[in-house]
Design goal:
Order of helices and strands: HEEEEHEHEEHEHHEHEHEHEEE
Number of helices: 9
Strand order of the largest sheet: 9-11-8-12-10-13-14
Radius of gyration: 19 Å
Helix content: 25-40%
Number of strands: 14
CATH class: Alpha Beta
Structural class: alpha+beta
Shape: globular
CATH architecture: Alpha-Beta Complex
Largest sheet: 7 strands, mixed
Oligomer: single chain
CATH superfamily: PurM-like C-terminal domain
Strand content: 15-25%
């Protein structure tokens, strides 16, 4: 038996792989969040902590680079917990012969995003190898509790009991509105279209972005009960994970899902499902119903002009269900694997 690429692609196979081979050996709890909870971050002594590795082909793509992904991706895993990204480590594995010009571009992207979110790299490691990998990056991050998080939890608790000290992906309850903060599938489409020899011109850039820059304002408005960073597996994976952990169903109106026409056409031509394609600067969130319009207004004011309320949580069923423009309903299953490998 050998490991398959699907075992690390963000879908059902990866979850099964982790539970069987990793969680069964290493499950632990240093704070509120256990390893087996499979949240975007865990916690210890009041801090949030996460780590991630990045292998993207090509390493520089329209709208960003593996450096952008490393800083934004790790900070986003902290931000969706309500944590303020603060401290990071960085490790690079670089192929012998990789160009210094490309490395400098990648490191400049890292430095630029660190400055924007006011975070620091304080330790790291570098290896140069002969393997045909181009460049791979690992970043770990520590996030802090903050006034924005505390304000949000205060507002949520005005409406119902909320036992968590972070924003948890299992925090949904019946009636919560579901918000997607912008157009989906842009990262995966931009990376795929930029691959050498692909021969498909697409006027779109990756959405790679540090979501803390707008989430802190949404947290100030308050009422956010659950959040996910819809990377591998896209919004299909994020919605299904939120529903399963919260033990509620989710109904989504297909017409409300934000997606650019160019990306939609790209997916239609290639037979790809944008719902299961990676994003690197978007958030799927649940918000108490009475606060949803205010949070949406805040997101738009903070620059997320395509953010939309797309559905709500329900006790009517336990699946994620999509309502089509003609009024029919279909179950949106969790993706089995990422349709486009090595995009993050």
């Amino acid at each position: 038996m050998r490991i398959r690429k699907e075992d690390g692609a963000g879908g059902k196979y990866m979850m099964d792989f982790l539970k069987k081979h990793v969680i069964s050996r290493f499950d632990s709890r240093a704070g509120e969040i256990a390893l087996s909870d499979l949240d975007d971050s865990s916690d210890f002594d009041g801090y949030a902590f996460t780590t991630d590795s990045y292998v993207v082909t090509p390493p520089i793509f329209p709208g960003g680079s593996i450096g952008s992904l490393a800083i934004c991706g790790t900070s986003n895993d902290l931000a969706v917990m309500g944590a303020k990204p603060a401290i990071m480590s960085m490790s690079l594995i670089i192929q012998d012969g990789f160009t210094v010009e490309n490395l400098d571009r990648i490191l400049d992207d890292m430095a630029g995003w660190l400055e924007k979110i006011n975070a620091q790299i304080i330790t790291g490691d570098t290896k140069v190898v002969e393997a045909n990998i181009g460049i791979a990056a690992n970043t770990s991050g520590i996030g802090l509790k903050n006034k924005h998080l505390e304000r949000n939890l205060e507002v949520v608790r005005e409406y119902r009991s909320y036992p968590y000290s972070w924003v948890r992906d299992r925090g949904l309850a019946e009636g919560d509105a579901i918000i997607i903060t912008g157009n989906i599938a842009e990262h995966a489409a931009a990376v795929m279209a930029s691959r050498e020899g692909f021969g498909f011109e697409l006027d779109v850039e990756s959405d790679v972005y540090a979501v803390w820059l707008f989430l802190k304002h949404a947290l100030d408005t308050g009422g956010i009960t659950a959040m996910k960073d819809p990377t591998r597996g896209g919004i299909a994976a994020a919605l299904n994970e939120m529903a399963e952990k919260s033990r509620v169903g989710i109904i989504i109106e297909e017409e409300r899902i934000p997606i650019g026409e160019n990306v939609k056409s790209f997916c239609d031509v290639l037979g790809l499902d944008p719902m299961s394609m990676a994003n690197e600067g978007k958030v799927v969130m649940g918000v108490v119903a009475d606060q949803a319009e205010d949070v949406l207004k805040t997101l738009k004011k903070a620059g997320q002009k395509d953010a939309a309320i797309v559905g709500h949580a329900t006790s009517e069923f336990e699946e994620v269900v999509v309502e089509t423009p003609i009024g029919t309903r279909k179950v949106l299953p969790p993706p089995v694997a990422d349709p486009i490998p090595r995009v993050c």
